[in-house]
Amino acid sequence: MRTSICSSLIDDVEDRLGENRDEWKWGDLKHALFEHALSPAVDEESAETLNVGPKPMGGGNYTVGRAGHNDEFQLTYGGSWQMIIDVGEWNNSLAMNVPGQSGDPESPFYDNLLDMFVNGEYFPLLYTREAVQDACVRRIDLTPVSSK
Prior knowledge:
By secondary structure, the protein is α+β, with helices and mostly antiparallel strands. 26% of the residues lie in helices and 18% in strands. The protein has five helices and seven strands. It has helices spanning 2-17, 26-29, 44-50, 114-118, 129-135, and strands at residues 31-34, 52-56, 67-69, 75-78, 81-84, 94-97, 123-124. The chain has a three-stranded antiparallel β-sheet with strand order 5-6-7, with no helix packed on it. The mean pLDDT is 91.
């Protein structure tokens, strides 16, 4: 029985990645794809704009950077928001928020963190006003309109 299960799994991987085992890579199977909730309701071109990925991704259920996948090897869960806090020097803190920090697909910050995420990298999580202002790339001032 065990031999037939292993043989079946190997056959499945060969179907997906080819017969040359020297060319098999986990990232060719496992991938991060963030499908927007509206993508099934729009045309293919719009869905490609809304969806982020796919990108090859390492890791698994029992590894550092735990990130599980479904039967199609698509990321299904993991730490999409992560923080490493240095309470002694707050500006040394790091974070991750995948796939980006904007909900606007036309923003450069919509999917800018995906590559960092799949590579296990973080961005600086700044706290002091000076550090935030030094790193600022865009500022939006919101002013309430009088309701007269």
